[in-house]
Amino acid sequence: MPARLTTAMVLAAGRGSRMAPANGLLPKPLVSLGGKVLIDHVLDRHIEAGIARAVVNVHHKADLIEEHLKRRRSPHIEISDERDRLLDTGGGVKRALPRLGAGPFLIHNSDSVWIEGVGSNLGRMLEAWDEERMDCLLLLALASQSLGYQGRGDFAFEAGGRIRRCVEQEIVPFAFTGVSVAHPRLFDGSPEGVFSLNAVWDKAIAAGRAFGLRMEGTWMHVGTPDALAQAEQRLAQT
Fold first, then answer.
1. What local confidence, expressed as pLDDT, does residue 22 receive?
2. Which CATH number fits domain 7-236: 3.40.50.2030, 3.90.550.10, 2.160.20.10, 3.90.930.12?
3. 78, 85, 108, 60: which is closest to 193 by C-alpha?
4. Which residues of the chain have pLDDT under 70?
5. Residues 1, 186, 200, 159: what is their CA dihedral angle, to the nearest 10 degrees?
6. Which of 5, 170, 179, 224 is the most buried (most CB within 10 A)?
């Protein structure tokens, strides 16, 4: 793993409205899966991969998330506060760029967990990162082997590990797991305020600087009560 890549951005600011029937008064990052809340699944993966710092953005029920994170001893956590305005994925990362530093960093949705296959997926990602060729590297899972994903696929691989979008009516095999590596230059010329990461990925795809890595194992997108129940059942089988 490159020593310079030791920082992560955890996206935990969403409203989690689709999970509401299962989480009661809790924000989605604090919903429990297998006896551990979702954001701790994420941060524990980071520790295993050698991530020393995590910047966590907060908006919905931000006080509860901050209070929970104060109990953790590692990684070192900083808060990117979006109480004033929810900025979507791209806008949230852009606001946090001064905290994330000048080098590449991991971006990880707080509802993205998985059962490892052979070795560490994050470890493989950080080893595969090539700062000279890449502006972003997305972790992609086979949609047919994932839990909680209901789409037609998001990306297809091209030569050399580059990725492309699916075209209209096309079904592609790979789903985005909510985990990527990015260089700050990915956000050069990006909008101010609210925008999706899709906007900067599309620019990188057009420039041939967006790459993918296939996940080994079972990805679980824990975004709804049904997906939570499926993930609990799958974890019980391991």
1. 59
2. 3.90.550.10
3. 85
4. 1-4, 20-24
5. -60
6. 179
